[in-house]
Amino acid sequence: MKKYIIRGGNKLSGEITISGAKNVALKAIVASCLTNEEVILENVPRISDVHYMIEMVRGFGGQVIQDGNTLRITVKSIANYRLPLETAVKMRASSLFFAPFIVRCKKAEIPNPGGDRIGARRIDMHIEGLTKMGVSIVNREDGYFYASANSLKGANYTFHKNTHTGTEQMILAAVLAEGSTVLENCADEPEINELIELLNLMGADVKREENRRILICGVEKLSGARYKIKSDRNEAVTFAIASALTGGNVWLKEVNLEFMGAFVKEFEKAGGKVEKNESGSLRFYIQDKVSPTEIVTKIYPGFMTDWQGPWCVLMTQADGESKIHETIYEDRFQYVHELKKMGAEIELFNPPVDNPEDFYNFNSDDCTKDTRHAIRIKGKTDLNNAVLSMMDLRAGATLVLAALIARGETIIYGVEQIERGYEDFDKRLKKLGADIEYIEE
Ligand code: EPU
């Protein structure tokens, strides 16, 4: 069992480089399996989700050479089109292997990634879209999708709701399909554009048009490429809040502010300032005091669902009542119970919503009578130490942030969750002055 022991109260200061984006790296690894030539990926974070992806690629016969943050991937052929259940269900990105398996083996056996600690996380639109491309897919009782197709056929498909990985699934399938594919109501998340950039470097023909439309002309084959992954906007927000919360002075290098507009807007409303130095690094700080805010999580370019946990910790320090309304996942407030142990005054509730089917991205069928979609946070509250458990990746970061400003020594179990998405999180916080110890029992 892995845990952190954090003694709160230290102001963070120094400089930190934001890592490459997890949610690009995982998909770039899948894209690399669409060619038999070498793909070199740079700035890949050394996190456990990447490790599991590498393990799966090696498992079906690919060669992956990892040298620091660079991966050299060569998949000459795919020897086994069935993903191992235990590794694959650890992360949603594993469900993206349909395209490489079908293109190269005509078959794919992929476990249903299923629900996790933040929601049901269906892939029904992925399956519907792939079916339109001529893939026959059966979901058996053993939890696997069994897919087969002699070839992938270009198709027109309209997503009925926003889906980030669903859009990526269809792009990955369409690049080597016969003919053209037109995708409507696609997700606009910038991580998808990086996947498109990589695929086009590999010889694909993918164009994003206006009005959430993507056009893909299938090509005969893809070739090798070299691609550098841009920095992670979730990690940038986590460190920005860590610095502001602790009243610190941390300069963040390699931040892509362009994709964090909604965060900066709310941060400024909350009394925050963003300063840029000559070398382009950014410092996020609170000028005077934290003001309460009302947030509704939204698809890009809105305020990301992944930011709401860390934001909640910042709002515990605001003078007055704040609200956060989560619209992407039906169950992403599991960290609230843990923050309450630290003395945070947070209440879960369901705000009235006119047209829930349109307003929420999740399916209302996945909610129970106990599911709550919003929280009220009363501030300002001094947080105290507690013994906590991380439920998922972003909830883990949320608890660490809370512990950094709590009185006394906080113990947080479930560090495996943080390791899924943040490279050397404790070591980097320690370098910035946090009193954090990592213990493996
Ligand atoms: N949904 C469906 N059916 C589908 C697809 C999605 O009902 O076929 C629902 C989901 O259940 C969810 C909502 O639509 O309620 C949004 O799902 P989406 O497909 O857009 O997101 P995702 O693939 O589950 C990715 C990231 C998330 C990030 C979201 C939003 C990856 C591997 N994951 O998730 O990242 O929060 O997009 O941008 O790219 C994280 O990094 O911690 C994380 C959860």
Outline the structure in words:
The protein is α+β, with helices and mostly antiparallel strands and about 450 residues long. Helices cover about 30% and strands about 25% of the residues. Strands 21-22-1-23 form a four-stranded mixed beta sheet, with helices on one face. A four-stranded mixed beta sheet has the order 2-14-16-15. A hairpin with a 2-residue loop joins strand 4 (about 65) and strand 5 (about 70-75). Helix 1 (about 20-30) runs parallel beside helix 7, helix 6 runs parallel beside helix 7 (about 190-200) and helix 8 (about 235-245) runs parallel beside helix 10. The mean pLDDT is about 95. The structure holds uridine-diphosphate-2(N-acetylglucosaminyl) butyric acid (EPU). Uridine-diphosphate-2(N-acetylglucosaminyl) butyric acid binds near residues 92, 93, 123, 125 and 361.
For the secondary structure, the number of strands is 23
Rg, Cα atoms, Å? 22 Å
Mean pLDDT: 96
Unreliable sequence segments: none
Main sheet properties: 4 strands, mixed
Distance between the ends: 5 Å
Summarize the model shown.
The protein is an alpha+beta fold. It is 30% helix and 25% strand.
Describe the secondary structure blueprint for this structure:
Blueprint: E1 2-7, E2 13-17, H1 22-32, E3 39-42, H2 48-59, E4 63-67, E5 70-74, H3 85-88, H4 98-105, E6 107-111, H5 124-132, E7 136-139, E8 144-148, E9 156-158, H6 164-174, E10 180-184, H7 190-201, E11 205-209, E12 213-217, E13 225-228, H8 233-245, E14 249-253, H9 261-269, E15 272-276, E16 282-286, E17 294-296, H10 308-315, E18 320-325, H11 335-341, E19 345-349, H12 356-359, E20 374-379, E21 387-389, H13 393-405, E22 409-413, H14 415-419, H15 425-431, E23 435-440
Parallel strand pairs: 2-14, 3-13, 9-10, 17-18, 21-22
Antiparallel strand pairs: 1-22, 1-23, 3-5, 4-5, 6-8, 7-8, 10-12, 11-12, 14-16, 15-16, 18-20, 19-20
The structure holds uridine-diphosphate-2(N-acetylglucosaminyl) butyric acid (EPU).
Uridine-diphosphate-2(N-acetylglucosaminyl) butyric acid binds next to helix 1, helix 5, helix 6 and helix 13.
